[in-house]
Structure formats: structure tokens, C-alpha cells
Amino acid sequence: MRKYRLRRFIKPNSTITLFLLFCFITQAFSSSKASENYLKLKIDRCQAALAANPNDAKYVIELAQAYLYNNNNSEAITTFNKALSLKLNDQQKSKAYIGLSQAYVNAKNWDAAIATLKSGLKSLNGDFDLYSKLGELYMCQGQPKQATAQFKKAVALNPNDCQIHVFLGMALSLDNKNGEAINEEKLALKLNPKNCDADYYLAMAYLANNNVDQAQQACNDALLNNPKYADAYKLLACIYASKNDKTQALANINQAIKLKPENVSYQKVLAKINKMP
């Protein structure tokens, strides 16, 4: 098997960085999703409803979420905690625990975020969304073994969810279990052949296993499903560079830069390719 010069272009722990970009972990609920005026109206409406009935769980949770969307984390934390003190159904509990965890993440209190999800799982005796979220947090903390355990529990509850198999494959790859990672990404693609993220992380798993040609094909598949997938162009550029194909490497990294000119990492890859003979 031919060994390509991948490490020059792809850092060993780049999967963590890619996952951080891929997930909505920090500031996930930003005001870009809704105007400030809408959020203010939402907060006012919830507060008016709660003035009449302070313990209406529906409006307490909606108010907490509005604070979260508006990046008012301290108010979100207080209001989610109030919600959890009320009588909630399982769906409401799941929303409240996930929202509270996200507020702690936004406040950079990762320990509290993880503890919150663990409390929620104990209270609900297991929950797909909570297992998934806890796995994401462990990934962002660079703990792939713990992430894998949580994603597997989520898969057991909903084996037909495509995205959870994508996440599980990413965790396995980061834990150097590339064969298992490849299988998970393939399973994700079986569930949804148009999932370009599954194609992309399949390519990453192939690369980690030094299956460069398969990685190249997986990147091409990702771009067939999403021609504006900038990271896939970057990865293709790295693959072509490792094969000493400077022309194709430049074409792909320039396409990535065209799609995301603000991405500094693309410029760094371009600089390395330009130094090729």
C-alpha cells in the first residue's frame, strides 16, 4: 500500500476542530436565528403569561429558551432551573435539561453542562437527545471514549437516526478505531445516501486508515450531494497535495477559499501547497 504524505497537510487531531465547527456547541442559539425584536416580543409575551400563572411550565420553558436565543445566559440558567422545579412531562424535561446544559456551555462552565445532562438522564431513565448532547460535549472536551459510550446509548434508542451514526463514527475515528468508524459512516449513508457530512467524515476515517483513494471518492460523493461543501474541497486539496498533484490541489483549495474566504485554515493549506515544487 502506498503511503501518502498526509501529515504535512492534515493535523492528527483535526477531527476535534472539525467537530467544533460542525456542531452547534458554543453560542448555538444565536440571535441570528431570529431578530432581536422577535425575541423581545417573545420574552414579553411569556412574561405576560407568567404574570397570570407563574408556574405554567410551557411558558417558563419558552421564556428560558428565548433568553438562551438572546445570549442572556444568566437569565436562561435561572429560568431553566425554575422549569425543572415544576411538574414536567418527559418531553419538557428533556428540553429543559438540554437548554440548561447549553446555557452552561455558553457560559463556559463545561462541568456544570455535563453534570446537568447526567442529572437529566438519571431523571428520565435515558433519553435519546440527552445522550446525543452529552456525547457532543465529550467530543468537544476531547474525550472520544466517553463520547462513543453516549452515542452508542443514543443509537440503541433510535438506530435509524442517520446523524447519530455520523457522530458515533466521528468519535470512533478520534479514538483511532477507524474500521468501526468507517462502518458507522457507511451505515449513516445507508440510512440517508444524501448526507454529505457522512461522506465527509467517511473520508476522514479512510484517511486516518491511509485509504487515500477511498477518501478521495468519499469527498467527491460529499460534493455531489453538496457542491458548496467547502471543507470537502479543502480535504480534496490535501489529498491531491499528498499525491504531489499540485494543480488539482490548488484548484480545490482555491474553491474552498472562494466559498469561505474568511476561513484562516484554508489560507494556511494554500500556503503549504504553494511551496510544493
Known CATH architecture of the domain at 1-11 and 159-277 = Alpha Horseshoe
Mean pLDDT: 89
CATH topology-level fold name of the domain at 1-11 and 159-277 = Serine Threonine Protein Phosphatase 5, Tetratricopeptide repeat
Kindly name the structural category. Answer: mainly alpha
Largest sheet: none
Proportion in β-strands: under 5%
Number of strands: 0
User: Which value, in Å, is the CA radius of gyration?
Assistant: 21 Å
Q: Given this structure, which CATH class of the domain at 1-11 and 159-277 is correct?
A: Mainly Alpha
Please identify which CATH superfamily of the domain at 1-11 and 159-277 we are dealing with.
Tetratricopeptide repeat domain
Helix percent reads: over 70%
Indicate the low-confidence ranges by residue numbers. 1-34
Task: Tally the helices.
Answer: 15
Along the chain, the helix and strand elements come as HHHHHHHHHHHHHHH
Shape: elongated
Distance between the termini: 24 Å
Structural commentary:
It is a single chain. This protein has helices spanning 14-22, 36-52, 57-69, 73-84, 90-106, 110-124, 128-140, 144-157, 162-174, 178-191, 196-208, 212-225, 230-242, 246-259, 264-274. It is built from 15 helices and no strands. 73% of the residues lie in helices and 0% in strands. With 277 residues, the chain is an all-alpha fold. The chain has a domain at 1-11 and 159-277: Tetratricopeptide repeat domain (Serine Threonine Protein Phosphatase 5, Tetratricopeptide repeat, Alpha Horseshoe). The radius of gyration is 21 Å and the shape is elongated.
